[in-house]
UniProtKB/TrEMBL annotation:
Name of the protein: Phosphoribosylglycinamide formyltransferase
Residues the record marks as active site: H112 (proton donor)
Function: Catalyzes the transfer of a formyl group from 10-formyltetrahydrofolate to 5-phospho-ribosyl-glycinamide (GAR), producing 5-phospho-ribosyl-N-formylglycinamide (FGAR) and tetrahydrofolate.
Source species of the chain: Afipia massiliensis
Keyword Membrane: no
UniProt entry keywords in alphabetical sequence: Purine biosynthesis, Transferase
Family according to the record: Belongs to the GART family.
Lineage of the species this protein comes from: Bacteria, Pseudomonadati, Pseudomonadota, Alphaproteobacteria, Hyphomicrobiales
Domain of life where this protein originates: Bacteria
GO CC term, one of those recorded: cytosol
KW Transferase (keyword) present: yes
Limits of the Formyl transferase N-terminal domain: 5-185
Entry EC no(s): 2.1.2.2
Length: 217
């Protein structure tokens, strides 16, 4: 089967982008990363993508000011010009309009550093620590107009440690992000997901292993 053509949208360092690029090197991976677009000129991830031999583009959002849709029309044109089939947001720090989301409905994924629907928005690790939760994690989901919502494709959980700071917790969650984003894209690109009444079915039972924190030994 032809590999699905994927674009990754970034605003920053692009570590999730790198995880996707690495995974897509596997011969049996059902998607190829054909384009990386940043809305910020000089974003760190652009050089990494270019070094990996991926075509890069910058569509700056700043000149468009409050006219989000005008920015998105330009972005959309670039995606269409490259025959993109699936879009992965990877640290893309722009709120998207319903118009853009509609163009990519069921074909756009995002990764969020929390176990949604908990901790939508910013500062997820700080807020999880303030609440004293024992399990935290990351979520890959289809993008819908509401921020950090939409059918969940895959989640990964980590233990929260007593002595965690937002930085140490972020690092542990990031390790999970780098595992689940490539796996979630594999699932979606290979046709292994089905959207049903606003939720995503994966036909996959997953593991029976429970993550229990703290573990009493
Ligand atoms: C990641 O932790 C991602 O989950 C988060 O930004 C970081 C980007 O890092 N995204 C969000 O908070 C979106 N709501 P990266 O550029 O190294 O992939």
């Amino acid at each position: 089967m032809a590999r699905r053509r994927v674009a990754i949208l970034i605003s920053g360092r692009g570590s999730n982008m790198t995880a996707l690029i690495e995974a897509a090197k596997a011969k049996d991976y059902p998607a190829e990363i054909v384009l990386v677009i940043s809305n910020i000129a000089g974003a760190g991830g652009l050089a990494k993508a270019s070094d990996a031999g991926i075509e890069i583009a910058t569509v700056e959002s700043k000149p468009f000011g409050k006219d989000r849709e005008a920015f998105e029309r330009k972005l959309h044109d670039v995606l269409v010009a490259h025959n993109i089939e699936l879009v992965c947001l990877a640290g893309f720090l722009r709120l998207l309009t319903p118009w853009f989301v509609k163009q990519w409905e069921g074909r756009m994924l995002n990764i969020h550093p929390a176990l949604l629907p908990s901790y939508r928005g910013l500062h997820t690790h700080e807020r999880a620590l303030a609440d004293g939760v024992k399990i935290h994690g990351a979520t890959v989901h289809f993008v819908v107009p509401e921020m950090d919502s939409g059918p969940i494709v895959m989640q990964g959980a980590v233990a929260v440690h007593d002595d965690d700071t937002p930085d140490t917790l972020a690092l542990r969650v990031l390790g999970v992000e780098h595992r689940i984003y490539p796996d979630a894209l594999r699932l979606v690109a290979s046709g292994g997901t089905r959207l049903e009444n606003g939720s995503c079915k994966t036909g996959n039972a997953g593991s029976d292993t429970a993550l229990i924190v703290p573990a009493i030994t």
